[in-house]
Design brief:
Blueprint: H1 5-36, E1 48-55, E2 60-68, E3 76-84, E4 91-98, E5 114-118, E6 135-136, E7 146-153, E8 162-170
Organism: Halomicrobium zhouii
Keywords: Membrane, Transmembrane, Transmembrane helix
Protein name: Archaeal Type IV pilin N-terminal domain-containing protein
């Protein structure tokens, strides 16, 4: 026995309602995720600036999040400071925050947060250990060395991970 036309229409309308409710629930869930965790869904890498100061006496380069977007866990895989010697012969990565693994700090990195990278040849607190900052590099810090703050993550809609330099600070004895 064949169903009537009204049964076919009723079935189609029922399927449309289910699909419409599914889309409403999906959109609501997406909106709630944005409100509760704004950093979780990022359409582009964070827009943040960093400042730096170098203390020649202690041999410490301090980098500070100076403003802009917080570095959130959701889209971020890591925030790394790449310290490069002025002659370009030596470079060392210092992981500020990362998903798993060894990192100096935890998410989020917000305005005012800082990391201190020290010179391994200076024992600024005279404790017999030259490791006095949050991290150390394998070479002496001098004028002209650079520290690049490099973000790696996956912004919303990106086909894969993106790596971008957020800011670069140059070591200067007067800073």
């Amino acid at each position: 026995m064949r169903a009537s036309l009204s049964d076919d229409v009723r079935g189609a309308v029922g399927a449309e309602r289910v699909a419409a409710w599914f889309l409403v629930l999906l959109a609501t869930g997406f909106a709630v995720a944005i409100v509760l965790q704004p950093g979780l869904i990022a359409a582009s890498p964070p827009d943040a600036t960093f400042s730096g100061s170098y203390d020649e006496t202690t041999g410490t380069l301090t980098l500070q999040h100076a403003g802009g977007d917080a570095i959130e866990d959701g889209p971020t895989s890591s925030l790394v400071v790449v310290v490069t010697d002025a002659d370009g012969e030596s470079a060392q990565n210092v992981t500020w925050v990362a998903d798993g693994g060894d990192a100096v700090a935890a998410y989020p990195v917000e305005s005012g947060d800082s990391i201190a990278v020290d010179d391994p040849s200076v024992d600024s607190d005279d404790d017999g250990n030259a490791f006095d900052g949050d991290a150390t590099v394998g070479f002496e810090l001098d004028d002209g060395d650079t520290a690049a703050v490099v973000w790696r993550g996956r912004p919303l809609g990106a086909p894969g991970e993106v790596t971008t330099t957020l800011d670069t600070v140059t070591v200067s004895a007067g800073s």
